[in-house]
Amino acid sequence: MEGESTTINVTETPKERKGKAPLLATPPGSNIIKPAAQKAPKGGYKRGLAIFDVVLRIAGIATALGAAIAMGSTEQTLPFFTQFFQFKAQFDDIPSFTFFVIANSITAAYLALTIPISIVCIVRPHLVAPRVILIFLDSVMVALTTSAAGGAASIVYLAHNGNSDANWPAICQQFNDFCQEVSGAVVASFLTVVVLMVLVILSAFSL
């Protein structure tokens, strides 16, 4: 019959479906490139503290070694003497000064030997064991250096002021150069104590 149209439905077989790929449809999220979140590097401040630790140890070596050398080289002989006596002052005449030289020499050697441990903390700032070791050893050095500086300071005080109750006269009026040198050595030793205390605090913050 004219005017009539027929529609023919063509069905695809499963084999034909397998050979066709979708042009536009993509699995959700398969081709989406997400920018990688950049994380801030960890341990940055710990590395900075470790660098400062090395600088302080070098400064502590200078102050401790300077204190030991200044005290160990202290000597003064008065220009007048008698037939039986010569008026002379040396650091080894006083046991506290001898202990002072030994203690500050040990402290300077210790600070030099622990610089490699501080360098390890710079390279690997997250390590805990080196910090714990430094805290313990630095605390021991604080006690040693403080005792040496305190003992020497008491002798220097007596040399400057004397003690009227014990009838100990001040000797710095005669041995002026000797007293000035030992006083400078004591000041340098107390600076070493301050450096060691700051090192303990830095190691504690780095844990």
From TrEMBL:
<dbReference type="InterPro" id="IPR044173">
    <property type="entry name" value="CASPL"/>
</dbReference>
<dbReference type="InterPro" id="IPR006702">
    <property type="entry name" value="CASP_dom"/>
</dbReference>
<keyword id="KW-1003">Cell membrane</keyword>
<feature type="transmembrane region" description="Helical">
    <location>
        <begin position="49"/>
        <end position="71"/>
    </location>
</feature>
<feature type="transmembrane region" description="Helical">
    <location>
        <begin position="135"/>
        <end position="159"/>
    </location>
</feature>
<comment type="similarity">
    <text>Belongs to the Casparian strip membrane proteins (CASP) family.</text>
</comment>
<keyword id="KW-1133">Transmembrane helix</keyword>
<keyword id="KW-0812">Transmembrane</keyword>
<dbReference type="Pfam" id="PF04535">
    <property type="entry name" value="CASP_dom"/>
</dbReference>
<feature type="compositionally biased region" description="Polar residues">
    <location>
        <begin position="1"/>
        <end position="12"/>
    </location>
</feature>
<feature type="transmembrane region" description="Helical">
    <location>
        <begin position="97"/>
        <end position="123"/>
    </location>
</feature>
<feature type="region of interest" description="Disordered">
    <location>
        <begin position="1"/>
        <end position="23"/>
    </location>
</feature>
<dbReference type="InterPro" id="IPR006459">
    <property type="entry name" value="CASP/CASPL"/>
</dbReference>
<feature type="domain" description="Casparian strip membrane protein">
    <location>
        <begin position="47"/>
        <end position="195"/>
    </location>
</feature>
<keyword id="KW-0472">Membrane</keyword>
<protein>
    <recommendedName>
        <fullName>CASP-like protein</fullName>
    </recommendedName>
</protein>
<feature type="transmembrane region" description="Helical">
    <location>
        <begin position="185"/>
        <end position="205"/>
    </location>
</feature>
<dbReference type="GO" id="GO:0005886">
    <property type="term" value="C:plasma membrane"/>
</dbReference>
<comment type="subunit">
    <text>Homodimer and heterodimers.</text>
</comment>
